[in-house]
Design brief:
single chain; 8-stranded mixed sheet; 153 residues; globular; 8 strands; alpha+beta
């Protein structure tokens, strides 16, 4: 059984976020873009109906970030999931910069991290949806996770 199946369940629940996996809330000091949303528009449309209004009034949801070391296109890939399934990935360059943070999480026994996702688009001018994460820059994440998990990693 692969990592995603262990985290998200069998084939039917594989892309849905479950509450029984170990996640650590990631620092949210900044914003990080997500790529590949065009491949996940069905999940994003379903997610739009489930979003809550965030502190800035934008549609928000809990995003789960999980490393995908078996990804055939990028060994450093980090997938972004919402309550309705996978909604994208961090860019190749960004994922590489977060590699150390996800190594710290894995070594401390976590399956991934969580943060707030913000939904963009879905209106007549921009019918497709996009995602931005409230997520600190990789160096800040690494520094804070190292301080938090240093004794346990």
């Amino acid at each position: 059984m692969g990592l995603l199946e262990r985290i998200f369940g069998g084939t039917q629940a594989r892309d849905a976020v479950r509450s029984d996996h170990r996640l650590l809330a990631l620092p949210d000091d900044d914003h990080m873009s997500v790529v590949g949303e065009s491949f996940y528009q069905d999940a994003l449309r379903a997610l739009a109906a489930r979003c809550t209004s965030g502190t800035d009034g934008r549609p928000s949801f809990e995003a789960v970030l999980v490393a995908e070391p078996d990804n055939p296109y990028d060994a450093n890939a980090i997938a972004v999931h919402g309550p309705t399934g996978k909604v994208g990935h961090l860019s190749r360059e960004t994922a590489e910069r977060y590699a150390e943070s996800f190594e710290l999480l894995r070594n401390a026994g976590y399956d991934g991290g969580s943060c707030i996702g913000l939904l963009n688009g879905g209106d007549p001018d921009r019918p497709n949806y996009g995602v931005v994460l409230k997520l600190a820059y990789p160096e800040t994440c690494e520094e804070r996770l190292d301080a938090l998990l240093g004794g346990r990693a």
